[in-house]
Amino acid sequence: MSPFELICFDFAGTTMTDSGLVLEAFRRTIDGLGVEGERAAQAEAYVIETMGQSKIDVFSALFPAQSAAANDAFEGHFVEAAQELGVGEVPGARATVEALRSFGFKVALTTGFSPATRESLIEILGWSDLFDARVSPADAGRGRPAPDMLWWCALRLGATAITSVMAVGDTASDMVAGQRAGAGSRVGVLTGTDDERRLLEHGADVVIDSVVDLLSFETLTAG
Known about the structure:
This protein is of the alpha/beta class and 223 residues long. It folds into two domains: 6-18 and 88-221, Rossmann fold; 21-85. The protein has eleven helices and six strands. It has helices spanning 21-33, 37-49, 55-62, 67-85, 93-102, 115-125, 137-140, 148-156, 172-181, 196-201, 217-221; strands at 6-10, 106-110, 133-135, 165-169, 185-189, 206-208. The chain has a six-stranded parallel sheet with strand order 3-2-1-4-5-6. The protein is globular. The chain starts with 5 loop residues before the first strand and ends with a helix.
C-alpha cells in the first residue's frame, strides 16, 4: 500500500513541455524594458538559476523599480509565445495523471505563473478536468522555494499529513520547496531545467526520466 495520498506536480518542464518558452518570454520582456548587453546576459543567467520560482519574485530581485510592469509583460509574452510556438504535454503526462487518479491518488498542479497565465495554458492544453486542484503563488501566499503551495494543496485536498504528499518537479526550487514543506518524497524529473546532480543536491529523494515513471511500483510505494 502506498504511503502517499496526494501527488503535487510542477507545471512547465514537468507536465507541460517548456521548449524554451520561459526564456523567450523573458527576452521579449527585457527587450521592452530596454535592458541590453552584459546586464541582459546577467539577468538571463539569474532567470535560469531561479527557474521554477515565482516570476514576480524573480523580477523583484532583477528590476525592483519595474517589477510589477516586468511581471505583467512577461505573463503576456509567455501566453503569446505559447500560442505562436505551440505548447504541449510532456509525453504521457495526461495519461499518467489519469492513471494515478484511477488508483485513488489525489493530484494537484503547482506553478510559479499567475492564475491568469496558468488558466490560459490549461485551456490551451485542454486540462481543465485533469487536476483536483491548481495553485499559483497568488493563491497560496508565497511561491517556491517557499513551501506555501504544497501546504495549500495538502489543506485544500484533505491530506492526513504532509508526509503523505509527494512533490514532483524539474527544478532545484521544486525540490527545496518539497523539503521545506516536509513532503514525504521529493521526486525530480529530467524533462525540464535541471540535471540529476542539481536535483539531488537540492533535496530530491529520487530522480526519474519523466512523470510516466511514477507509475512504477517502487516509486509510489517508497516512503
